[in-house]
Specification:
- By secondary structure, the protein is an alpha/beta fold.
- It is about 25% helix and about 20% strand.
- The chain has one domain: Alkaline Phosphatase, subunit A.
- It has a seven-stranded mixed sheet, sandwiched between helices.
- It starts with a strand and ends in a 31-residue tail after the last helix.
Length: about 475
């Protein structure tokens, strides 16, 4: 019997909040869920950028295979785009196999394009008839406010809360069809702007007055880094104006955002249980990528592979797992965001939806000791990077920038680039060989090492020094 698939998807959620002992984040509901699910402690995004990561999730392909290598939507960059209709998603494949499909919330792969794909049940979703950047119109803020870094809400019901309310209400309708269903609850948070209800911000009033983020350093002060890390490419990435108190307030609001979503998840999780769906559903919690939150002086994300944006929480509960008695599990096998849907479909028993190759990519089948990932473009600019990470080492290669190599055993914060260290020449050569073998197997054009535009160049011909006007 095929099982239901329920995915609770967040945006820009850091791995350490759920996995680092002693972390200040207060997440009681997700911690309880972790104890009855399987925790994949070495899960990594396929690319640390919203649109290409989501295209990878929903198609099981790499960005160079879908053509979706940059963020799409609105007027923030050149060119406008969407996930091409020829790229069939797992939701469409499940629908064609008899599943009911409901997608609630952030899609970020082209306005209206889920409806265009024949998936009409898309409440509060930019894949339906809600613009991506829409916000609730009843929000009231307290002072001080510094958007997008922090803003304390005193009143109103933000869209993410509305989305979870809809998801809770949808469960009965989906269950009543008598068919298996795929429900995706996709939230904007904790992606900035960090507009968070006061009671969740106040959970972190006990942060030290002199708090500064872990792994902080003044932006662009590190040496031996790729040129791509020498400039910001979106206004909020410029952190030069943030004071120590701004960083403290930003952390309060980011973790408060996580605590608020934890509360929403707890309500949703309780409704899944009350509806008797624990025995008939695969339930997963994850995110598309992480958040720098001051690491290396950065806010948001960028064209780099630091663990703060690459490593992601990944919790999957099989039907019947745990049953309230703490039967959770933990595995250190390396898994990729790209392979999540093949995993969920495999665990749901809908094997006919998958190819043989896709079925082999299930998290329970791989046992991999490394993971690979990529980066291609941001806001119309070109950043070509490919990377590989093992338990100890992280290596990044680019055809138009310098290499990076970090020994995570001695440099967990990834400060010292040892790509030119003769003591690690053999390590670098081995990782380079493995990385290029992966690129060749996936038919990545970069494997040919042809000409690439200079780092940060626009694909429409603008000079690399030009700062895009993001309001256009």
């Amino acid at each position: 019997m095929r099982k239901n698939i329920i995915l609770f998807l967040t945006d820009q959620w850091r791995w350490d909040t759920l996995n680092q002992p002693g972390h200040p984040a207060k997440l009681p509901n997700l911690m309880a869920f972790r104890e009855e699910a399987t925790n994949f402690t070495n899960a990594y995004t396929s690319v640390p950028l919203c649109t290409p990561a989501r295209a990878s999730l929903f198609t099981g392909k790499w960005p160079h295979q879908t053509g979706t290598m940059d963020n799409v939507q609105g007027k923030a960059f050149y060119p406008h785009g969407k996930l091409h209709p020829s790229q069939k998603t797992y939701m469409e494949r499940l629908r064609d196999d008899g599943y009911e499909v409901c997608f609630i919330g952030k899609w970020h792969l082209g306005d209206g394009t889920l409806t265009d794909r024949g998936i009409p049940d898309t409440p509060l979703c930019d894949g339906g008839d809600v613009p991506l950047m829409r916000v609730a119109d009843d929000l009231e803020f307290a002072a001080p406010r510094k958007t997008p870094f922090y803003g304390t809400l005193d009143a109103g019901t933000p869209l993410d809360e509305q989305r979870v309310n809809i998801a809770i209400d949808r469960l009965d309708a989906l269950q009543s069809t008598g068919r298996p269903f795929c429900l995706i609850v996709s939230l904007h948070g904790p992606h900035f702007p960090h507009h968070v209800p006061r009671r969740y911000v106040e959970l972190y009033d006990d942060l030290p007055d002199d708090y500064m983020p872990d792994n902080y350093c003044p932006q662009f002060s590190e040496t031996g880094k790729p040129r791509a890390q020498s400039a910001f490419y979106w206004p909020c990435q410029d952190t030069s104006g943030l004071t120590q108190q701004d960083w403290r307030r930003t952390a309060q609001h980011y973790w408060g955002f996580c605590s608020w979503i934890d509360d929403l998840f707890g309500r949703f999780r309780a409704r899944v249980q009350d509806a008797g769906l624990d025995e008939t559903s695969v339930l997963a919690f994850t995110t598309d990528h992480g958040e720098m939150l001051g690491a290396h002086g950065w806010f948001d994300k960028g064209p780099f592979f630091y663990d703060e944006v690459m490593r992601i929480p990944m919790l999957i509960r099989d039907p019947g797992q745990g049953k309230g008695n703490g039967q959770g599990a933990e595995t250190g096998s390396f898994v990729s965001f790209r392979d999540l849907f093949p995993t969920l479909i495999d665990r749901a028993g809908a094997h006919e939806v998958l190819s043989v190759a896709e079925a082999r990519r299930s998290f329970w089948s791989t046992g991999a000791d490394h993971v690979t990932y990529c980066y291609d473009a941001y806001q119309g600019r070109q950043f070509k990077f490919r990377g590989i990470r093992t338990e100890r080492y992280k290596y990044a290669w680019s055809p138009h920038d310098i290499e990076e190599l970090y020994d995570l055993q001695t440099d967990l914060q990834e400060r010292e680039n040892r790509a030119d260290d003769p003591d690690l020449a053999t390590v670098k050569a081995d990782l380079n060989t493995r990385l290029f073998a992966w690129m060749k197997a996936e038919r990545d054009p970069l494997w040919m090492q042809g000409y690439q535009l200079p780092v940060g160049s626009y694909i429409d011909g603008r000079d690399v020094s030009e700062q895009h006007v993001h309001s256009e």
